[in-house]
Write a structure and sequence with these properties.
This protein is an alpha/beta fold. The chain is about 55% helix and about 15% strand.
Length: about 270
């Protein structure tokens, strides 16, 4: 059995709930639920997270998903036991390509679900966020942090690189030198410094974190459904596009909005009022 198959087996064989999912009217809360290990990304937690997100993004009633952690941490990142297992099998027939499958299809698969779905994702950082857990948070559409949150650059000291989209997120928010300093310096960043640098959009007291996330859910739910579904890929593509490409995409997209009932009703109401 390959490492990838073994990790999937471990994940699917788990009998405990490593992820808690609570559905509401137009949103859901997904909580990493292994607080005694700071929600380390064990095989069961990853497998259950992916399954939960596949289910949620397929539900048109769910407009927003909040990702958060149980206990005092968001996620400590990758499981060292998993890394050791991968290291022990590097001389197997498939070498490093075997763990590549786990990184791409499971870690990366979750990041792609967050980025590519029409659902808006809100990361609610209740404590330290490191490694792939941090990558998932930075992939979300909005990142909120409690005053207890820490952005932890753990990859460098393990001899790893920014992973699962982290290099993209960091360089676009911090620039090359800022991203390099974050990686090489290895110093955890508190919530207010992360806010100053644009890594998070709001910092609140710990007891207000869920309320702040719910406010974002309500704001997004108030948007016409087509506006969210069209704006999310447009804005994500614009991060890599030239100005000319961005304005061209906007010019093609905008006329479609004129055909929607939501736009027409709003324009009529506003013109009648004034």
């Amino acid at each position: 059995m390959s490492v990838y198959q073994e990790l999937l087996r471990q994940g699917n064989a788990a009998t405990s709930d490593f992820v808690e999912v609570v559905r509401r009217e137009h949103s859901a809360v997904v909580t990493f639920n292994e607080p005694e290990r700071l929600n380390v990304l064990s095989a069961p937690l990853v497998v259950q997270t992916k399954a939960a997100l596949i289910d949620l993004v397929a539900d048109p009633a769910i407009r927003t998903v909040i990702l958060t952690g149980a206990g005092r941490g968001f996620s400590a990142g990758g499981d060292l036991k998993m890394m050791l297992l991968a290291e022990e099998h590097l001389l197997d027939a498939e070498g490093s390509t075997d763990i590549w499958r786990w990184i791409r299809y499971e870690f990366g698969g979750i990041a792609r679900l967050i980025a590519r779905s029409d659902t808006a994702f809100i990361a609610a950082l209740n404590g330290p966020a490191a490694g792939v857990g941090l990558a998932w948070a930075l992939t979300c559409d909005v990142v909120l942090a409690s005053e207890d949150a820490l952005i932890v650059p753990a990859f460098g000291r393990l001899g790893l690189l920014p992973e699962v989209g982290t290099s993209w997120a960091l360089t676009r928010r911090l620039g090359y030198q800022g991203a390099f300093a974050f990686f090489a310096g290895g110093e955890p960043m508190d919530a207010y410094r992360a806010l100053e640098l644009g890594l998070v959009q709001e910092v609140v007291a710990p007891e207000q974190l869920r309320t702040a996330a719910d406010r974002w859910c309500d704001r997004i739910a108030a948007l016409p459904s087509h506006a969210l579904a069209m704006a999310k890929p447009l804005l994500r593509q614009a991060a890599d596009a030239t100005w000319e490409s961005s304005i061209t995409m906007e010019e093609f997209a905008e006329p479609n909005c004129f055909t929607t009932g939501a736009f027409q009703r709003t324009v009529r109401r506003m013109t009648e009022q004034g």
